[in-house]
């Protein structure tokens, strides 16, 4: 299906290569989406042009099977429950780009994995993008001793001290009651 990527300047349309960059996939995957009818396009000569609106509205399908119904609530039946730490903190003024760069480095280097943790989330508030929510989860039987936990959290905070204002932090310790 691949066609020449001649430069055709048609308002409201992009080439498959440009669409691929916008969506974050390869240009071959864009041709697959065209073939599947998931992206609206025009064909001019041998070139495919994809509607910018179609690219902006495009949503990649999740990997695996989509859930048909949400899982039911459950009660912990064993002696093992979840323990978590929730931290809400503000990004320092003008440091959002630097914060995101640090997150990328954290992921690439696999740093601050926090001994025994089973889930770690760092999320940005959509209504207030300067607010970051950090949620760390352990099974209580895999929770490290308090000294280890405090030392590792202090190292994490120190690594982000130049971009996150820890003076604004609100921290909570949580114990699981129900789960899905």
Task: Give a description of the structure.
This protein is of the alpha+beta class and 180 residues long. The chain folds into two domains: 13-57; 74-179, Alpha-Beta Plaits, CATH 3.30.70. It has five helices and nine strands. It has a four-stranded antiparallel β-sheet, with no helix packed on it. Strands 1-3-2 form a three-stranded antiparallel β-sheet. A two-stranded antiparallel sheet has the order 4-9. The protein is extended and about 70 Å long. Residues 2-6 have low confidence and may be disordered.
- Unreliable parts: 2-6
Sheet with the most strands, sense and barrel status: 4 strands, antiparallel
Q: The CATH topology of the largest domain, please?
A: Alpha-Beta Plaits
**Helix count?**
5
Mean pLDDT: 89
Question: Shape from CA axes?
Answer: extended
The CATH architecture classification of the largest domain is 2-Layer Sandwich
What gyration radius follows from the Cα positions, in whole Å?
A: 23 Å
Residues in helices, as a percent range: 25-40%
Going by helix content, strand content and strand pairing, the class is: alpha+beta
Percentage of residues in DSSP E strands: 25-35%
**Could you give the order of strands across the largest sheet?**
6-7-5-8
Summarize the helix and strand pattern as letters.
Answer: EHHEEHEEHEEHEE
What is the quaternary state of this protein? Answer: single chain
